[in-house]
Design brief:
heterodimer, A: mainly alpha, elongated, B: Calcium-transporting ATPase, cytoplasmic transduction domain A, 27 helices
């Protein structure tokens, strides 16, 4: 049973990692939108539409910095 | 005789017969109803997002001409920093836009994929429930007007950003609460696991070194949870104490502290038990309750903010004969604005030129348009139905009727928050009492028998764990709200179910609540000399003539199934409509329009006449149609002993007619929202406990004053946000169900409380006397909680439904 002296601290370490991951996820807004990302799997194409910056129309409209 | 209606591919509305527009999908040509829908659908299809149409669960909003030039309008605000949202680090901004037309998750996907691939847009979040889109972007790389144009390009109408900093604060508050909840939850799982080992050790024996080890680990996990998740209770308790009040968090903080400190003392002195599991469990359940409350509060706040959505963002300001588009919030007293037909008034003011009909339904619940002439007052948020008019603004945006209503609402909502934490407060005091009993027990055993000190005190603490007691109410409420949901009733404030017990008066709004808010034909009379026409035939002709009309009266014929190709040459006039059906030219309208020499009655929606060139054929008597089973439900409520009252803003004749048809004796007409609020308050002063049933925005403040509020299907968002019960079904019989469910829930709660308290009262003396060893106490506590949960489960099973059937005689589905 003395293996518990290793396993239980290990569980606490895992707990710390879980808490860190949770805090990170919340901070990054992973829990803000629980609906639409699930749809992305079904809906998104593998091929993305071309980025807007490459269209000539947008080059003219570019904001001067 | 019916033709399969041809529906627009994009918005799902019927395609006018003359419209030949189509869009090309992968498979075939699809019809669309207008050039707006065509443009939007083409854009969606051309950017490879045709799957939106495949997976959406609701049809899209019909785009208007204005949506298409949205980009132009917004261009003038590209340089306005205040519209960019909240500044973040390194030049990014967080923009919160309220967007109209988000109806299902596929919309959220469409918006995200349209925006996220664009230069300068880092992250897009869409909240389908509230219609808010949060955009993390860089104004130096992407223009505001292009974002707006992109949104409106795919058919979603963006609105000017609301106060950004405040919403960011709310997001932070929600995230912090979620973090506290998560930490407490994870911590609880661990500590409970160690506690299970300790309890098992009590029962079956455990080596002292293991016991010390498990206690030590529990302390290590509990301390950060207490410091992180439990800190809010201390700050809140301290705040109330420094205001010389004993707030609800004081016993909570006390209980946590005593349990933690006692555990630490016992741990370091090396004898006695530890209660770290109780500490984290208590913190977790309290955090859970707080988080749920926070989410509801934020949602309500957002709905209040959405009041702003009723007002158009842009107004046409008249300046030296020129019109200029300005944000409506920039309007000031004495500005002149032009309001086109079909548009919403951007401000409160006086009509200075033209005359028109105004739809004030959103504000007064009255769907009949009101005539307005020069000098008449118009209210921001009402809709101009007939002619383009000019209005002189006579109030600042803060004093608009809508704004005042919003403030009234916010005030009354904070006022009623008193009962939201009632059960929590009881739990807090209960814990305090338990701790006092436990210390008395400890004190007694210290002076009498030191060996019994630890087991007896521990037994008291474990056996009286407030689990069963704190579960008694929530478990019952949860099951009964699940049962209600199956019936189509949404419970938004759990305390409301308990509060139903004291109710003795029910107050109804008329338009849209007792009635459906739409006209219906209550009587059809055929001219005795034109008996070649049957009643079916005349209603079919009337339905054909009204087929494309947007006038409210046309809804009276909406149920009649007709073949739209048999009507031609429809011309809409001010007082009616004419058209050719199967070769004959008919006119449908009021007496003057149809050349019938009669005096028009002004009750209800009045009368409609159908005529051809040979004179009148039929007369339709219109009235506001009652909701499903209104009369039966009212009879059932009256039989159950409730006092029923109608409060309406409508004129006395209309109210009397509905009162008579529903059999309600007490009614008051021509009541403003403020008068309704006063009336309710005076009822409450007389000791009455009032349920208010309403639907309109004008009802929202009144709903929030009532002890219990209910809204019926088709109610405005704002009214729903203040409602305790949201009835999604069309019938009024659900009010009867709710009251019965409340009764049933209360009896279950009483049983639960009786059991939990009785068990505690019975067991605690034995525990204090030392007859119960801790493991028996732990078992008893769990069984007691289980019993409470099982008892509550009876509500969710067939019990409630069959009871409803029996008691009301109304079918339950």
């Amino acid at each position: 049973m003395s293996i518990l002296y290793v396993l239980i601290p290990l569980a606490v370490v895992l707990l710390a990692i879980a808490i860190w991951a949770l805090l990170w996820a919340i901070k990054n807004g992973q829990f803000e939108d629980l609906e639409s990302h699930g749809w992305s799997v079904v809906l998104d194409d593998d091929q993305k539409p071309p980025r807007e910056s490459k269209t000539p129309e947008n080059v003219n409209n570019d904001v001067k910095q | 005789m019916t033709e399969k209606a041809c529906l627009c591919f994009h918005c799902g509305e019927p395609v006018p017969p003359a419209c030949k527009l189509t869009v090309e999908t992968e498979a075939q040509q699809q019809p669309v109803c207008c050039s707006g829908c065509q443009a939007v659908a083409n854009l969606i299809l051309s950017t490879g997002q045709s799957r939106y149409y495949q997976f959406r669960t609701a049809t899209a909003m019909k785009p208007t001409e204005e949506d298409i030039d949205t980009g132009e309008t917004w261009k003038r605000y590209d340089e306005r920093h205040t519209l960019w949202g909240t500044p973040l680090k390194d030049g990014r901004y967080e923009l919160l836009l309220q967007v109209e037309g988000i109806r299902c998750a596929a919309c959220a996907w469409l918006i995200r994929s349209q925006l996220e691939s664009r230069e300068g847009i880092e992250q897009v979040q869409v909240d389908v429930a509230t219609g808010f889109v949060r955009i993390n972007w860089r104004p130096d790389k992407q223009k505001l007007s292009r974002i707006a144009a992109k949104l409106s390009g795919v058919g979603y109408r963006p609105h000017l950003p609301l106060a950004g900093a405040e919403s960011l604060g709310r997001q932070q508050e929600r995230r912090d609460a979620l973090k506290r909840l998560g930490v407490a939850g994870l911590g609880m799982m661990q500590v409970m696991m160690f506690a299970a080992g300790l309890y098992a050790g009590d029962a079956m024996g455990i080596s002292e070194s293991f016991e010390r080890f498990l206690q030590w680990i529990s302390l290590v996990v509990t301390t950060p949870v207490l410091l992180y998740s439990g800190r809010v209770f201390y700050t809140s308790a301290w705040r109330s104490l420094s205001n010389h009040r004993v707030g609800m968090d004081v016993p909570v903080a006390l209980a946590i502290s005593i349990a933690f400190i006692m555990s630490c003392v016992n741990f370091f002195t090396g004898h006695g038990h530890v209660y770290f599991d109780s500490v984290v469990m208590f913190i977790f359940f309290l955090s859970l309750g707080r988080y749920a409350e926070l989410v509801i509060r934020h949602r309500n706040l957002q709905t209040c903010l959405a009041l702003a959505r009723l007002l158009p963002e842009w107004a046409e300001l008249i300046n030296d004969g020129q019109t200029e588009k300005v944000p409506a919030t920039d309007l000031r007293v004495a500005d002149m604005v032009r309001v086109r037909a079909g548009h919403t008034f951007p401000a409160d003011g006086l009509l200075v030129s033209g005359s028109t009909e105004v739809d004030e339904a959103l504000l007064t619940g009255e769907s009949r348009p009101v005539e307005k002439h020069i000098g008449d007052k118009v209210i921001a948020g009402s809709i101009n139905r007939a002619q383009t008019v000019e209005v002189e603004v006579n109030k600042d945006p803060d004093d608009f009727t809508v704004s005042v209503m919003g403030r009234m609402l916010l005030k009354s909502q904070t006022h009623r928050s008193r009962y939201t934490r009632l059960s929590e407060r009881y739990a807090g005091w209960f814990v305090a009492v338990v701790l006092i009993v436990a210390s008395l027990t400890a004190a007694w055993w210290v002076t009498h028998d030191m060996t019994m000190l630890v087991p007896a005190t521990l037994a008291v603490l474990v056996i009286s764990c407030p689990c069963a007691l704190s579960l008694a109410t929530p478990a019952a409420v949860a099951s009964s709200s699940r049962a209600l949901l199956e019936q189509g009733v949404l419970l938004t404030r759990s305390a409301a179910l308990e509060a139903l017990g004291a109710i003795n008066t029910i107050v109804f709004d008329k338009t849209g609540t007792l009635t459906s808010g739409l006209p219906s034909v209550v009587n059809t009379v055929i001219n005795p000399i034109r008996e070649e026409y049957s009643k079916d035939q005349v209603s079919r002709i009337a339905a054909l003539l009204e087929i494309d009309s947007s006038h409210p009266v046309s809804k009276a014929f909406a149920d009649v199934v007709v073949d739209r190709s048999s009507v031609r040459e429809i011309i809409n006039h001010e007082n009616g409509v004419q058209g050719r059906v199967e070769g004959t030219r008919y006119r449908l309208g009021n007496g003057a329009f149809t050349n019938v020499n009669v005096v028009d009655l002004k009750d209800g929606y009045g009368r409609l006449w159908l005529a051809d060139q040979n004179g009148w054929i039929a007369r339709f008597d219109l009235d506001d149609g009652l909701r499903d089973s209104a009369a039966e439900s009212m009879a059932a409520l009256r039989a159950a002993g409730f006092e029923l009252i109608i409060l309406s803003g409508d004129h006395p004749q209309a109210v009397a007619s509905v009162a008579q048809r529903t059999g309600i004796d007490t009614w008051y007409a021509e009541q403003s929202p403020a008068m309704k609020m006063e009336f309710l308050k005076s009822l409450q002063k007389d000791g009455k406990n009032v349920v208010m049933v309403g639907d309109g925005i004008n009802d929202a403040p009144v709903l929030s004053v009532a002890n219990i509020s209910m809204t019926v299907s088709g109610a405005s968002e704002l009214a729903n946000s203040t409602a305790d019960f949201i009835i999604t079904g069309k019938s009024l019989k659900y009010i009867v169900y709710i009251l019965l469910a409340g009764e049933k829930t209360r009896s279950i709660i009483r049983q639960n409380l009786l059991w939990a308290l009785g068990y505690n009262l019975l067991a605690v003396p034995f525990a204090a006397a030392g007859f119960i060893v801790p493991w028996m106490a732990a078992l008893g506590m769990s069984l007691s909680s289980l019993l409470v949960v099982l008892n509550s489960g009876r509500l969710a099973r067939s019990g409630l439904q069959s009871d409803l059937m029996k008691r009301t005689g109304l079918a339950t589905t």
